[in-house]
Design brief:
Layout lengths: L2 H7 L6 E5 L6 H10 L3 E5 L16 E5 L11 H15 L4 E2 L2 H7 L2 H11 L6 E4 L5 H8 L3 E5 L9 E3 L2 H9 L11 E5 L3 E12 L2 E9 L14 E2 L20 E5 L3 H14 L3 E9 L5 E7 L8 H5 L3 H26 L5
Helix pairs in contact: 2-10, 5-8, 6-7
């Protein structure tokens, strides 16, 4: 295919919008869009506002990249605001990738577990609570060790492990439990990852894209795949999506091929949650021998140095997916306009 044909295939009437707040995570996607010469623009979610009377048709598509962990960067005010903005866009007929339903699930670990229960899939036992005074009773039902997770997390934020009632009671009495910006938390059984391995399955367009095994250190609940600094051969990985001064995690990563049943399960999870681009994490619990699904990530950063780890660049495929969706939506809208007798 010639360069001219390539450029023609990327023609859009209106730009693709990337709605985001983190300054570093999305540079690889921005680069891919630039290389394709497609019209696109950034929308900074940190200090955004909108007119409810606006027709909001200036974009061919909007890709939602708001992070639930924004509250860690002093931007918690943007989390619930984003729900309203996405509902507004969809109500006006804008094509949104990872839209309202997706983001609603992204900011509720409780809702994620409800979905897993609905699908009949295994997950760590949990109780959802809304006040620290409920933590001890919930933990007794679950059985120690437990972890307490803010309902709205991101990057492992606020997760604490308690091995005994004495430990948890001390935390409750010291009033140091933090439930996050919606004052809701999960008290959940603490699993032990077999061989220290967590598996993360990524999807694009709601379909399996790739999977990685993360060899954890046990020192952190932050499993951002873009911040893992070496593969299982001990080779340094180039972390193009995270800040260059991000601390090295000590974790290692390798590509893997999950069982067909896992791929089917993951695709069912993301379909129910409305997640078009994201990642699902699961683990084999060494104590019980159970495979447990435990996290749904709608804002999922791809693995660092992806060509070396998984054999291809997922950012290139993501850019092509967004362009194809934008073209499809523009074509459908044009057909609707013609069928209605033209714009009014």
């Amino acid at each position: 295919m010639s360069d001219e044909t390539n450029r023609a295939s990327y023609e859009l009437e209106k730009p693709i919008a990337i709605y985001y707040e983190h300054p570093d995570w999305f540079r690889p996607l921005f680069q891919q869009l630039d290389e394709r010469g497609v019209p696109w623009l950034k929308i900074d979610a940190r200090h955004h506002n909108y007119d409810v009377a606006s027709e909001e048709l200036e974009y061919s598509l909007l890709f939602n990249r708001m992070s639930p962990s924004a509250w860690l960067r002093g931007l918690g005010h943007g989390v619930f605001y984003t729900l309203n903005y996405l509902a507004h866009l969809e109500g006006k007929g804008v094509r949104v990738v990872n839209g309202f339903r997706c983001f609603h699930h992204e900011i509720s670990k409780a809702l994620q577990l409800t979905n897993l229960e609905k699908l009949g899939l295994p997950y760590p036992k949990a109780r959802v609570i809304n006040h620290p005074s409920q933590a001890l009773e919930a933990a007794e039902v679950i059985a120690y060790p437990v972890v307490i997770k803010p309902n709205i997390g991101g990057s492992g934020a606020g997760i604490e492990r308690f091995n005994s009632a004495a430990e948890l009671r001390a935390a409750v009495e010291a009033k140091r439990l933090y439930f996050g910006i919606d004052s809701t938390a999960l008290v959940q059984e603490a699993f032990t990852a077999r061989d220290g391995i967590i598996t993360r399955v990524e999807v694009l367009g709601g379909k399996f894209l790739y999977a990685i095994q993360i060899h954890i250190t046990g020192e952190s609940y932050n499993l951002c795949p873009a911040d893992i600094c070496q593969n299982t051969r001990g080779e340094e990985l180039t972390r193009i999506a995270c800040p260059v001064d991000a601390p090295k995690s000590g974790m290692k990563v390798e590509g893997c091929e999950p069982p067909p049943q896992v791929i089917e399960d993951v695709e069912r999870i993301v379909e129910l949650a409305g997640v078009e681009v994201g990642g699902i994490e699961y683990v084999m619990d060494d104590r019980s021998g159970r495979q447990l699904y435990y996290d749904v990530n709608a804002l999922s950063n791809f693995v660092a140095d992806p060509v070396r780890v998984i054999g291809f660049n997922p950012y290139a495929r993501l850019a092509d997916f967004l362009i194809a969706e934008a073209q499809r939506h523009e074509a459908n809208r044009s057909e609707r306009v013609v069928a209605s007798g033209g714009p009014r």
